[in-house]
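Hi V.,

You were right to ask for the full record rather than a summary. Here it is.
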Amino acid sequence: MNLGDHLRTALFAILYVWGVGTSSVCASAEETQPPEMDILSIAFSDFPPYAIEAGVAFPQHQKEDCQYPEHSGYGIDVDFLIAVADEAGFRHQLSFYPHARLARQLETGHLDGTAGFFYAIANGKPKHQYILYDLGGATHLYLKTDRAKQLTEQHQLADLRIAMVRGEAFHNDFLNAALAEGGLSPAYAVATDYQQLFRLLDAGRVDAIAANNVLGQYIIQSEGYADIAASPLSFPYGKDPVEDGIYIALRRDLPAAHVERLRAATEKLLEAGVFHCIRLKYGILSNNH
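Predicted structure:
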């Protein structure tokens, strides 16, 4: 039976073997030695539902096209990269870091890869080796429900106490400048993570918070914030695959043969619908819902 047949009859019975034993999750990775080549060292920053450090327990699922056994998941991007690594024949070691440390580890070659990155250029060259797998999304402004519908124009941001996660970038030049540089809307407060960000808003300590649309909706639903909603004002990502695509990012000196194995595995799993089914597992239809 080939992979496509497995995906349609018992979709994740093989791809989720890692969920019951082959995934190694650690609090920190060795920073003084590059990772071994037979192990793909991957890391993420907590960014639910794309990356969830605490993990999520999933019961066995047998419905429609997407079927999988009981297992633990670590978010949409994490689960997909693990599936890609497995399909490409790599073992893997999974870590979670704050975003700044994650970026440093990848740039210095002490980490093999991550996922959920935008394409970036440094000194005229790509910062990493990239494999495209997704597109879309937006930054939303979240407020208490009775105020959310009133925020419709950019100039209104100047009157709000806005909070953001420290070091966050919103893939929107206008909003980044407004929040980070104090132009139109200086950030009133910063949070260490997204859970704290929503707690600030829920407690009334800030007027609005800025977050990815899927992340925001996921936290509202999972944490039961009935009095928080997204405003009509949003900042969509673009649709150019190069500038706005979402990528697996690999360290620059990862051997070309390894990159091609991962690229081939990514294309194969995308075509087979694995990424779509992983998204559905977390209740996400697309980056725009």
